Amino acid sequence: MNLRFASVGVCLVSLLAQQGIAHADDDFQFWQTTNLSAKLDEELTGHLEVQPRFTDDASRLGQLLIRPSIGWGLGGGVVVSAGYAYVRTSPAGSTVTHEHRPWQQLAFPVTGQPGSFMLTSRSRIEQRVREDGNDLGHRFRQQVRMMVPLERTGWNVVAWSEVFLNLNDTDWGQRSGLDRWRNFIGVNIPISHVVSAEPGYLNQYVNSASGDISDHVLSMTLNVNF
Question: How would you classify residue 53: left for phi > 0, otherwise alpha for psi between -120 and 50, otherwise beta?
């Protein structure tokens, strides 16, 4: 139990650190994510993620992300995945951009097991292509995620932190170094044996060339497992 509370404390401190970043412009946003997963055979699973992001005080659709993938289970909770993401971004008062993003991923449990306290790691490499540029951008993402059961409720407290690191510069604006940092805290609520909801608060710090940005995001995720 002490490990659980310590892990919660670490995640909360991380969230508070996000709030303390100075000179960052704030924006309230709403992100609605639908995750569909289907077992294709014993080791192979197909995934589809669709995520509209409402920006500018959640007044408009600022970004749409569609991300299909295939995951191979290697045993012991280790999963290797490969996928593609299409990202349409519509900044207020600026040009719409279209990004195509192949990616590869390794996910594995650090400690714990499903149904009890669990800490997992997810490492992802992305290759980013924008239609308004010629260069290929490379980005590394590292997420650590924690789930803590709430006794006698069936719910879980969920907290995670994810850092995005750009590995090179591009002619369409990617700069090497820290790109963004996301921190989330919320709850996982089982709705049926195949559906769960995950509402919560996400803070996103963006290291932008035009000035740092701090997005305060009301996040709602729906997970469906076939």
Answer: beta
Report the candidate in 158, 142, 129, 126 with the shortest Cα–Cα distance to residue 223: 158
Q: Which two tokens stand for residue 40?
A: 């294709």
- Amino acid identity of residue 209, one-letter, is A
Token readout for 151 is 């006794």
Q: pLDDT value at position 210? A: 82
For the chain, the residue count is 226
CB atoms within 10 A of CB 87: 18
Query: Mind listing the pLDDT tens digit for each residue in 40-58?
Result: 999 999 999 999 999 999 9
Distance CA 9, CA 187 (A): 16
| pLDDT beneath 70: ranges in the chain | 1-24
- What is the residue type of 211? G
Q: Cα(159)–Cα(10) distance, rounded to whole angstroms?
A: 10
